[in-house]
Amino acid sequence: MQTLCDLLETTPESVIQSFINDLSQENASSGSDERHMAAEYFMRCGYGMHLFEYNQIDGMFSGLDDVRKAFYNYGNSRMEEYQSYRKAYLKEWSKYWKEEKKKKGL
């Protein structure tokens, strides 16, 4: 990968960080297609499929995207309010999925 990155004048770290931003549905992602493709790649590799159904993991990505969309509703002038919303949402989101996992006895 280093050789390819050298030829393209980028770094493996920046490629991986972009993928992480896309996968986590962050505001700093490369765009909606890239977010979708990163999630599809993650799911095709089977990450978490031993714990959840495909549609549940897809729902997780949708929930994360909802948080990203909320950023635009709040806007930069209300960044503190958005951060508070994001923290509360992710706490509830995580709690919900942990409970779903427990239901399966995992």
Mean pLDDT: 90
- Quantity of strands, as a count: 0
> Roughly what percent helix?
over 70%
Instruction: Show unreliable segments.
Output: none
Tally of structural domains = 1
Shape: flat
**What is the SS-derived class?**
mainly alpha
SSE inventory with pairings:
Layout: H1 2-7, H2 12-23, H3 32-44, H4 54-74, H5 79-103
Structure, briefly:
Helix content is 73%, strand content 0%. It has 106 residues and is mainly α.
Description:
This protein has 106 residues and is mostly helical. Helix content is 73%, strand content 0%. α2 crosses α3 (32-44) and α4 (54-74) packs antiparallel against α5 (79-103). The mean pLDDT is 90. It has five helices and no strands. The protein has one domain (2-103).
Features:
mainly alpha; 106 residues; 0% strand
